[in-house]
Design brief:
Blueprint lengths: L1 E5 L3 E7 L13 E7 L1 H12 L3 E8 H13 L7 E3 L4 E7 L4 E5 L4 E2 L1 H14 L5 E5 L4 E2 L4 H10 L5 E5 L2 H9 L6 E2 L3 H8 L6 H10 L7 E5 L5 E5 L2 E6 L11 H15 L3 H16 L9 H8 L3 E4 L3
Helix pairs in contact: 1-8, 5-6, 8-9, 9-10
Keywords: ATP-binding, Kinase, Lactose metabolism, Nucleotide-binding, Transferase
EC number: 2.7.1.144
Family: Belongs to the carbohydrate kinase pfkB family. Belongs to the carbohydrate kinase PfkB family. LacC subfamily.
Length: 312
C-alpha cells in the first residue's frame, strides 16, 4: 500500500474570467472546485493507476468535510485526522493568458490534533510499503514545521519515503539525515539545495554523485520539457520526453511523484520506473484538471520516452 500525507490540503477554486485588470470588477465565466494540495493530487493519480493507497492529512471545518466527502465519492481510500480549524482555500484567477493564484496559509494544528495524527499513522504503519509527503505545512502549536516533519519521518523507519516539499525545508531535513529515500526537485529547487546556480546537466550529474545530501537518497531531478536526470541507487539516468502541446502543467510534479511511488510499490526496474513517472507527469499536463491522468495515454507516452545511462 502507498500512504500519502498532505499536512495542508486545500479546496482549489479556479475562476475563469476575462483578461485580468487590477482594480476592475470581473465576472466569473466558470468556477471549478477540486480537492487539492500536492499530496491529494498524488493520491488522485495513484487511484487512477489502480494502486492500493490511503490518504492521510489534516481536514477541518466545512471545507474539510467537503473534501472528505468528495474524495470518498471518487473512490479514494483515506484516514484523515479531523481538526477544529478550517481547511484552507486556494484561489486561481485564470484569464486565458495567465493564472494568478491567492493561497491561504492554513489552520493551526493543536497539540492534541498532532498527537491524534501520530497515533493514526502508527496504527497504519505496517500496512504501507511506500510513503509520500508532499506540499507545505500549516502552523503547529508548540512545534515547528521541521519538528513536526521529523516526528512523522521517525515514525516511518520501514517504508520507502518520498518527500516533495519546499527546498528550504527539504535542505534542513536532508542535513538531519532523516529517513528520506527519494526527492523530486526541479532544477531551481535543486540549485537551492546545493547552493549553486546556472548548473549544466553535467554539473547536476556530478553533484548527484558527489554531494553528501544524495549519498543515501534517490533523486528525480525534473527538467520540464527537457525530461529528467535521475540518480537511482548508484546509477545516473538521462530521460528525454517527446514534444507535447501542454494544456495545464499544474500538478505534473505531483503526478510524477505518484508515478515514482507506483513504480517502487510495483518493484519496477529503474528504466521502467522512470518512464512510468514521467509519463504520469506528462499526461497530467495534457489534461485541464489538476491531478488527473489518462491511463491509456500514460501507456502510450511511456513508449515514447527515451531513458539511458548518463555518461559524462
Amino acid at each position: 500500500m502507498i500512504a500519502t500525507h498532505t499536512f495542508n490540503p486545500s479546496v482549489d477554486i479556479t475562476y475563469k474570467i476575462e483578461p485580468l485588470v487590477v482594480g476592475e470588477v470581473h465576472r466569473v465565466k466558470q468556477k471549478i472546485e477540486n480537492p487539492g494540495g500536492k499530496g491529494i493530487n498524488v493520491t488522485k493519480v495513484l487511484h487512477q493507476l489502480g494502486a492500493a493507497h490511503c490518504a492521510f492529512g489534516y481536514l477541518g471545518g466545512v471545507n474539510g468535510q467537503w473534501m472528505a466527502d468528495t474524495l470518498k465519492a471518487m473512490g479514494i481510500t483515506s484516514a484523515f485526522t479531523f481538526i477544529k480549524g478550517q481547511t484552507r482555500q486556494s484561489l486561481a484567477l485564470n484569464d486565458g493568458q495567465a493564472q494568478t493564484e491567492v493561497l491561504e496559509q492554513g489552520p493551526t494544528i493543536s497539540e492534541s490534533e498532532q498527537q491524534a495524527y501520530f497515533e493514526n499513522i502508527s496504527k497504519h504503519a505496517a500496512d504501507a510499503k511506500v510513503v509520500t509527503i508532499s506540499g507545505s505545512s500549516p502552523q503547529f502549536e508548540s512545534r515547528s514545521k521541521f519538528d513536526h516533519m521529523t516526528h512523522i519521518l521517525k515514525a516511518l523507519p520501514n517504508t520507502y519515503n518520498i518527500v516533495d516539499t519546499h527546498a528550504g525545508e527539504l535542505k534542513a531535513l536532508l542535513e538531519a539525515e532523516l529517513p528520506i529515500h527519494c526527492i523530486k526537485p526541479n532544477q531551481s529547487e535543486f540549485e537551492m539545495l546545493v547552493d549553486e546556480a546556472q548548473l549544466t546537466i553535467d554539473d547536476c550529474a556530478r553533484l548527484l554523485q558527489s554531494h553528501a545530501y544524495f549519498s543515501n537518497c534517490d533523486v528525480f531531478l525534473t527538467l520540464g520539457g527537457e525530461g529528467a536526470l535521475v540518480k537511482w541507487k548508484s546509477d545516473i539516468y538521462r530521460a528525454t520526453l517527446p514534444h507535447k502541446d501542454i494544456v495545464n502543467p499544474v500538478g505534473s510534479g505531483d503526478s510524477t511523484v505518484a508515478g515514482i511511488a507506483y513504480g517502487v510499490d510495483q518493484g519496477l526496474a529503474p528504466e521502467a520506473l522512470i518512464r512510468q513517472a514521467l509519463a504520469c507527469g506528462t499526461s497530467n499536463a495534457l489534461q485541464e484538471k489538476t491531478g488527473f491522468i489518462d491511463v491509456n495515454q500514460v501507456s502510450e507516452i511511456k513508449n515514447e520516452i527515451e531513458v539511458e545511462r548518463f555518461e559524462w
